[in-house]
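Design a sequence for this backbone.
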């Protein structure tokens, strides 16, 4: 039996959740015993990643539910709402990191341990790998919350790079440069804020039914003209719900055919579109006369 996009997205989220739990634990231990606030700041973000991965998992499972009496268009919008929660967690973690790093910049503290650089190097490689895997799956499944999850990994990798640079400066330049570790954490928080916006903006477009799907509309029109009886297409509205799309399409047919014939054409057109474009959840066809 073929694996659905929903199942792929859920499986990927389980993998992401397991990775976040493991790396958060490593960062907390290394940051505490290695005397690195940048690494602790990194651990804070990874801890929020655990909760957001869990939220994404719940959202994907709920969004995959079929349409029912109270939700005739399905439950897909739950995924977009979860994306907003993920952004909220990101902003919260960035704010905490920024506040704590500013406090630590002027506070006297020891330089981080050199072995924290090795740990960070491995974390950067792992996180960037996770980013690429999850982003690829988000594109395959068309999942906005999975895309947000991917950017979580990328932002985590970036904060780890900043921590690596800050710790390196603190270690190799020695006395007087201990605060480089805290400056790295502050820069990391700014990167997280920026990534939060990049995740939030397309999700807002989805919830507001913003038109962002010119390529899909062109594909729908092209396929429609291959259906016998369809002379042309007029209006075509697309909106995203979860990882799939709902389409309203006006099809132009011969004005002299019967209502029954027009009805049959609309069914053939709908079946054709649903079979050739798996990302479509449903298509509503409106028949228009050619004159």
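Sequence:
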């Amino acid at each position: 039996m073929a694996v659905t996009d929903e199942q792929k997205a859920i499986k990927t989220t389980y993998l992401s959740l397991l990775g976040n739990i493991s790396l958060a634990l490593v960062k907390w231990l290394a940051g505490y015993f290695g005397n690195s606030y940048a690494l602790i700041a990194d651990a804070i973000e990874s801890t929020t990643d655990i909760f957001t991965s869990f939220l994404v998992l719940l959202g994907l499972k709920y969004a995959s539910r079929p349409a029912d009496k109270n939700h005739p268009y399905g439950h897909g919008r739950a995924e977009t709402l979860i994306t907003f929660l993920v952004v909220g967690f990101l902003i919260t973690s960035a704010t905490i990191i920024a506040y704590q790093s500013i406090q630590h910049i002027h506070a006297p503290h020891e330089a981080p341990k050199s072995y924290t650089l090795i740990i960070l190097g491995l974390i950067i490689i792992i996180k960037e790998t996770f980013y690429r895997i999850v982003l690829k799956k988000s594109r395959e499944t068309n999942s906005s919350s999975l895309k947000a999850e991917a950017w979580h990994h990328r932002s985590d990798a970036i904060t780890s790079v900043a921590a690596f640079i800050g710790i390196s400066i603190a270690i190799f330049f020695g006395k007087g440069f201990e605060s480089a570790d805290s400056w790295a954490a502050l820069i990391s928080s700014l990167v997280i804020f920026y990534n939060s916006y990049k995740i939030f903006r397309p999700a807002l477009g989805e919830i507001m039914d913003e038109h962002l799907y010119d390529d899909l509309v062109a594909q729908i029109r092209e396929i429609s003209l291959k259906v016998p009886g369809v002379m042309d297409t007029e209006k075509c509205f697309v909106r995203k719900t979860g990882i799939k799309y709902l389409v309203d399409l006006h099809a132009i047919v011969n004005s002299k055919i019967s209502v029954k014939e027009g009805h049959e054409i609309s069914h053939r057109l709908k079946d054709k579109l649903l079979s050739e474009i798996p990302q479509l959840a449903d298509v509503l066809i409106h028949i228009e006369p050619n004159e």
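The chain has two domains: 5-207, 214-289.
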